[in-house]
User: Fold this.
Amino acid sequence: MMVSLFTPVVRCRHKHLEPYMPPATAAFQNDKFAAYGLPNGSFSALQLEACNTTTFVPRCSSPEEHPPLVLFSGALGTSRLIYSSMLQSVAAAGYSVVSIDHPYDADFVEFPEGTTVKGADIDSDADIELALATRVRDIAFVHRQLGNQSFVKAVLPDFDRGYGYSARKTAMVGHSLGGAAAAAAVLAISSIRGGVNLDGTMFGSVITSGLKRPFMLMGHENKTQETDPSWKATWTKLTGWKREFEVEGAAHYSFSDLPLVTEVLGLQENLPQEVGQVLGTIEGCRMLNLTVSYVTAFLDFVLKAKPDGNSNKIANFSEVTLRAE
Assistant:
């Protein structure tokens, strides 16, 4: 599997630009999103700012502590790289974030030696249930590997920094099917302390068994318990801390980098009308800040024992409505 790691840096003296995607993935996404009105070569031209240093200092109260871990799973048929800017911002709030590509589930996965894997057709309920179960196994595998100090020191030497992984606090965030996977992973992996579902219909046994640990639902406009039966069925089974939010003006892929990509490219006002049904009407930078603010407030509450900050953030983002708690 391929993963991306985003680690917080307190001070960065020198920065550089990294390609937003490796070449084959960028070419694939260029072709895919040309149908939505993005100019040819859009993804190839995008870059992310990163720190040159290989010494990552955790944003913690003492050097004995280290950033909590956040695992991320994206939408069905969607590359993990479409979320990189959003997850970079989550990491900047003091978290080590690992996003996961699920081969044959993601639309396109590119490995370092040049091998590529395209996504399979997953459309029936049975296919989705199988994909969900596979995602949970992928998440559990990644989590175990990150707990293997020999592996971490060999492959991700800056991730552990000698503090020991075993006590690292962990939460799970997902978008779309990744949101369902977040719930399923919280249910299946006892060390994951809570989860966030960004706009995903719920699948799997969690609908009937529920969760005792904190869980947050955030949906686009008109995606609520009243319109999604899976949310309504799951809600009564959530016995721990829980919140449901609705974002007016958001659409399904508002919870990704895509609105920001169209804004950076100067295309947000010139895309076909049908694209608005996918990306929503909230401008890209604001939508990214909105998503990151609510996600990090949840993570701060669950992983850093800070007071629940979600309610007071509504004043900053009038698009967000608290639907249930």
Q: What stands out?
A: The first strand starts at residue 2 and ends at 6. The chain is about 35% helix and 20% strand. Residues 56-64 have pLDDT under 50 and may be disordered.
